[in-house]
Amino acid sequence: MTDDDWEVIVLGAGAAGLMAAIHAAERGRRTLLLEKNKKPGVKILMSGGTRCNITQATDNRGIVAAFGPSGKFLHSALAAFSVQDTIDFFEAEGVPTKTEETGKIFPISNKAGDVLNALLRRLGRSGAVLSLEEPVQGVTITDGIFAVQTSRRARNAKRVILTTGGQSYPGSGTTGDGYRIAAGFGHTIVTPRPALAPVICELPWVAELRGLTLPDVGVTVLEGSNELAHRRGSLLFAHFGLSGPVILDVSRVVSGHPSPRLLRVEIDLLPASGEIELVEFLRDESVRSAKKQLAVVLANYLPRRLCDIVLENTGLSKDRRAAALSKDERGRLVEAIKRLTIPITGTLGFKKAEVTAGGVDLGEVDSRNMESKLMPGLFLAGEVLDLDGPIGGYNFQAAWSTGWLAGGSV
Cα(176)–Cα(180) distance, rounded to whole angstroms? Predict the structure, then answer.
């Protein structure tokens, strides 16, 4: 073999690509990992607020369930490399982990750089060769040998693993290159769209609340009377609209809708409290705290800034006293608390999306080994596939597992 001839070439040194190259090389395959950026794992470093949420504290069935109908595609990958395997992998490389209340698993150091360095240490020991700043311009096949044309030269390989990512965070280099390569071999590309992205809202009062976090709310996306998505979790008000884990989790139905302006978000500000409980609280307080401002009374449940907005949306003055609240007023207040309605216009798009929905059609990839059903010798893993899960480490787990399985199959 020459320097341009390899048994395996992996395209893209992100989460899936690093794992695929490690496993292929550890199995004795002469492996080259190509990356167009100056550094590998750029998106790993950006993830989880630079803390890198490597996985979720659940079992394989929990990961599968989180991905919905497409989750069954992950059965073999998770059998090859499970949640516990992920934890063991990083801890063996000197990265102890911790589990937070949400089930998210992070390095104890809270440093994404530690996660990437662990992968690079293992890659270095594996014998795989990493070539940076070498973007792939095209891939062809002749007589069973792939020719990978890069910005420098043509590289040849018996097997190619496509791990170029999706289109989210394009500044990290994920600009959809892999879709073009896969399509060149006949693959169907399910239209990519942003997922886990903040949502835009033009209501002035939403911007006034920017910086305010609500740790536990229920969020429903509605079109008319039809419920398109529902989640419960933490929400953040921002100058452009809404963010936070609960919003990111429902954003894929917004980005996938042909007319997002027809949608609205309905927020249950107090999901742990029933409507009857709130009505009784307001009735009691109208007597017990008659001289207090109503906003002060509501501040027992909600942040004061938000109380003023709730009152305004109910048609009540911010200075209104708690005394003599009518039945109708109590009902309107509870309605505003349990079903605060916000019209939306869309998402912030791929630029701020954490993952990509859409990609290479899963029906065209053998889930048992990640090999293309259309082109023998071509393997696919990670975000290039039409596979996206909720926030919380699920997408990283899919990348680690599919990458590991692909590397073990070449």
Answer: 7
Q: Is 103 in contact with 392 (CB distance < 8 Å)? A: yes
Residues 266 and 373 in one domain: no
Out of 5-14, 170-179, 320-329, pick the least confident: 170-179
Pairing of strands 145-150, 154-162: antiparallel
Rounded to whole angstroms, the Cα distance separating 161 from 149 reads 14
Q: Which domain holds residue 253?
A: 198-348
CATH number, position 374: 3.50.50.60
Return the structure tokens found at 247: 């919003």
Instruction: Mark out the alpha helices in 275-379 (DSSP H runs).
Output: 275-288, 294-298, 304-314, 327-338
- Same domain? For 390 and 281 the reply is no
Average pLDDT, the chain: 94
Global pTM value = 0.91
Pick from 311, 318, 312, 320: which is nearest to 289 by CA? Answer: 320
Neighbours of 89 (CB within 10 A): 19
Q: What is the pLDDT of residue 31?
A: 98
Cα separation of the two ends of the chain: 18
pLDDT above 70 covers what percent of the chain? 98
Between helices 112-126 and 83-92, what is the axis angle to 10°? 80
Which bin fits 159, alpha (ψ -120 to 50), beta or left (φ > 0)? beta
289-315 per-position pLDDT tens digit:
878 888 888 998 999 999 999 999 998
Angle value at C-alpha 307, between 305 and 310, nearest 5 degrees: 120
Q: Which residues contact 87 (CB under 8 A, 6 or more apart)?
A: 54, 55, 97, 105
Q: How, if at all, do strands 31-34 and 5-11 pair?
A: parallel
Number of domains in the chain: 2
SS3 state of residue 210 = coil
| Nearest CA-CA partner of 72 in 398, 357, 380 | 398
Closest by CA to 332, choosing from 279, 264, 286, 269, is 279
The maximal CA–CA distance of the chain, rounded, in angstroms, is: 88
At which of 348, 377, 397 does a domain end? 348
Average pLDDT of the segment spanning 242-261: 95
- For residues 319 and 177, membership in a common domain is answered with no
Same domain, 225 and 335: yes
Residue matched to tokens 């007597």 = 287
Residue 173: what pLDDT? Answer: 64
**What per-residue confidence (pLDDT) applies to 174?**
67
